[in-house]
Amino acid sequence: MPRPPALHDHALDNLRFIRETMERAGAFTSVPGWGGVLMGVTAIATAALAGPVDGSRRWLAAWLTDAAVAGAIGLVAIAIKAQQSGLSLAAVPARRFALAYVPPLVAGAVLTVVFVRAGLATRLPGCWLLLYGTAVATGGVEAVRVVALMGICFMAAGVAALAMPAEWGNWMMAAGFGGLHIGFGLAIVRNYGG
Amino acid sequence: MGKQSSLAGRPSSPAGRPAAVAAPAKRTPLELDRLIHERLRLGIVSALAVNERLSFNDLKRLLHTTDGNLSVHARKLEEAQYVACDKTFDGRVPRTEFRLTAAGRKALEKYLAHMEAIIRAVKA
């Protein structure tokens, strides 16, 4: 006959349950893993198609199209994961995540127009990586821990891209939007589900 | 306009309440708070501890439970004044939201301290 669980095992189990419930209730957990991987794959494909940073309309159009595609992938992936987890996107954690995530992206959109008009389009990779990283890092405060770390890595990539010669921008875009999305996407799949 | 349905201020009727509800007032510090020891009620209190308020549906999804089960256990917590319940209308749709009261937060803190004390006692 199996022995009943010891009192301290029961206490440990209760503490674990409280912590997990608080984490699920307090953090935005519908961060897409496979969605992130797919976003990374489209970024690498775009880097190959767009070619070196030359500030041309073709290069700009290629990356803006990828941003739209990646945004759509991200939204669909978040919605699917939330549905599978039985969590509402209207719940407080998701709303807080969105409120922290969106403003830096809006700033990035505004600065894109400013950079293009000022003839600084070749510096856009650093600007995009830095502001996307800021969005992910600030949103990550409301999400599972790995998200904030991903944001910081994107920010570091942005700073590096701004410090490097502009010609390296396309490589940094591939490494950042491609490599970091794929790497962290796989880490999220492994630790938090797809 | 929201209608608060917390039981604060209502006349007490010990005879009509479950035994667990009357227990908190008589507990010594070393006694376990059976009211939040029950797993679903512990989940409700834990979830509300990290959210200012949560709707009935949010709690139901989060704790993977049924309407009836959540209603029964939330009601017990409400009767003990550990949670307060606000009922509003979103257009024509009724909306029920719960929030943790000061007594509920204190009860959770005591419960956590109790669990940690058990673990410490075994390690010592």
β-strand percent of chain A reads under 5%
Most strands sheet of chain A: none
Largest sheet, strands/sense/barrel of chain B: 4 strands, antiparallel
Class per helix and strand makeup of chain A: mainly alpha
Report low-confidence residues of chain A grouped into runs of 5 or more.
none
* Averaged pLDDT of chain B: 79
Strand arrangement within the widest β-sheet of chain B reads 1-3-4-2
How many strand segments of chain A? 0
* Class from helix and strand fractions of chain B: alpha+beta
Report the C-alpha radius of gyration of chain B, rounded.
Answer: 15 Å
| N→C terminal distance of chain B | 54 Å
Could you name the CATH topology of the domain at 34-114 in chain B?
Answer: Arc Repressor Mutant, subunit A
Q: How many distinct folded domains of chain A?
A: 1
Number of helices of chain A: 7
Which H/E pattern describes the elements of chain B? EHHHEHHEEH
Morphology call of chain B:
elongated
Determine the CATH superfamily of the domain at 34-114 in chain B.
Winged helix-like DNA-binding domain superfamily/Winged helix DNA-binding domain
* Assembly status: heterodimer
Describe the structure.
The complex is a heterodimer of chains A (about 190) and B (about 120). With about 190 residues, chain A is an all-alpha fold. Chain A has one domain (about 30-190). Chain A is built from 7 helices and no strands. Chain A has helices at about 5-25, 35-50, 55-85, 90-115, 125-140, 145-165, 170-190. In chain A, helix 2 runs antiparallel to helix 7 (about 170-190). The radius of gyration of chain A is 20 Å and the shape is elongated. Chain B has about 120 residues and is α+β, with helices and mostly antiparallel strands. Chain B has a domain at about 35-115: Arc Repressor Mutant, subunit A. Helices cover about 50% and strands about 15% of the residues of chain B. In chain B, strands 1-3-4-2 form a 4-stranded antiparallel beta sheet. In chain B, strand 3 (about 85-90) and strand 4 (about 95-100) form a beta hairpin. The radius of gyration of chain B is 15 Å and the shape is elongated. Chains A and B meet through helix 1 of A and helix 3, strand 2, helix 4 and helix 6 of B.
